[in-house]
Amino acid sequence: MPFKTADDACAEGERRDQRGDHDGALAAFEAALKLDPRHAAALNYAGWLLTTRLRDRPGAMGQGVDLLRDAIAAAPDDTRPLYNFADACVALGQIAGALAPVDAALERRPDWAEAWNLRGWLRGVKGGDPRGGLDDLQQALRFRGWYGDAQLNRGRIFRELMMHAEAETAFRQALRIGCFRPAEAHHRLGELNERRGHLRRALGHFRRAVELGAGDLAQDATGGVVRCGNALLHRGRFFLHADEETRRMTTDRETRPPRPIAAVLADVRGELARVAEDPDDQLITVGRMGLMAAETCLSEHVLEPRWADQSPALAIELLATGFTGERYDALRRVAEDVRRVWLELYDELLAREEPDPEASALAEVERLAGEREFAAAVAALRAIDTCDEVHLLRRAAMAELLGDRARLHGDAATALDLYRLAHGDFARHASYATSGGEGMARMHDVNRLTGKLAELGDR
Q1: What does pTM read for this prediction?
Q2: Could you give the 3-state DSSP secondary structure of residue 249?
Q3: Is 241 in a helix, a strand, or coil?
Q4: How far apart are CA 334 and CA 300, in angstroms?
Q5: Which of 13, 116, 174, 353 could form a disulfide with 179 if both were Cys (CB 3.0 to 4.6 A apart)?
Q6: Are 241 and 302 in contact, with CB atoms under 8 Å apart?
């Protein structure tokens, strides 16, 4: 198709790519470049196609990298070719090559937050220099305080450094502000909360990662849903009883009354018993295997996960493959019901609070302070994990309260110690407050503690 201008050809290339016609899109971009060899958008898009969707073509990666390098030269203030070039170089294992145009961009524009973020990702996430990467990301946040992708990259680096509290704070910030890969942030928060034993919270993050489409993490996120959900089940809090009225399955909702799944499986076993053994009949063989798997998931009228994939629904679907006609349809409906109830169960788990470890720890601190064991109370207070803002503020408020008590009882040294802890926690929260009003409130807290410290001679 002839094009009048390079812009027309580039627009057609984008339309073709959106329709999934990648070869046609590349042809249109190449037509744009014949009309205008310096067309920045066509250079960038063609280079991106060759280094991603068409990368298996002979010579595609090298050609694509060259086009992206030209795109950077044609549009030096556009982040897209810079980021696409970095992705291509990382795929080729050329970290130093990816850094060169980023360093040049920052030499020209030292306040370019996106370039600092890209440099932090290249050095800290991909290049084996985590501390250098964190320095770069701090620069990105210096020039753009509300930068979710920089927080996401900080979380990635902190996670690799095993600094879990800092990682959790960064991932939460990334979600609060908004980042390019929210599914990954939720997945990583799920991992961190699962590690701390906060299974309900972990389950919520894993479920959200699945809902958002976790991409390359989808299988791991789904596994997290199953793992945390069933860990909560096995704590003895929630079980799915197959013979409860509200949990019953039916083989035919319209013509038959609801029946427990155990009764359905008993019928199937009776039918299989009347079928002669035939090793060549793969459907019947698979049906017997599915029946054994489904029965294994059923124990004393309780449907529980029993094997590695943790899925009674899959066991019943496997059983259904051994049949045709009405029995196949009935078993498939049973599997659908089991899966639906399983998801409802997870939602029920999410709706209920699990015991809060920090709450019990704070109660112990208050008990120790009430008995005037201030040294033990301070030690216990400092040991409380404050990886999110809620617990940070709770610890700060408790520290100030206990400081007031210690001061009332004439223990100035302990009061100073507690006021310093409260001051630090309030200041830390103020540094990443979610709104102007909240930030102002936290600064009032900081100023109040500064005054109390000054009254005790700590300036």
Answers
A1: 0.59
A2: strand
A3: strand
A4: 19
A5: 174
A6: yes
Contact yes or no for 393/430 (Cβ under 8 A): no
The pair of three-digit structure tokens given for residue 286, joined into one six-digit string: 């698979």
Which pair of structure tokens corresponds to residue 414?
A: 């302990």
H-helix or E-strand containing 459? Answer: none
Residue 92 gets which letter from DSSP?
T
The phi-psi region of residue 284 (left if phi > 0; otherwise alpha if psi is between -120 and 50; otherwise beta) is alpha
Residue-wise pLDDT for 62-85, tens only, equals 999 999 999 999 999 999 999 999
- Separation between Cα atoms, residue 394 and residue 284, nearest integer Å: 61
| Tokens describing residue 137 | 């990301």
Helix or strand holding residue 295 (H, E): helix 282-296
Read off the tokens for 130. 């985590």
pLDDT tens, position by position, 203-252: 888 888 887 877 888 878 877 877 777 676 655 444 444 444 334 444 44
Q: How many residues does the chain have?
A: 459
Nearest to 239 by CA among 294, 312, 291: 312
* C-alpha–C-alpha distance, residues 272 and 288, integer Å: 7
* Residue 128 burial (10 A CB sphere; 0-12, 13-18, 19+): exposed
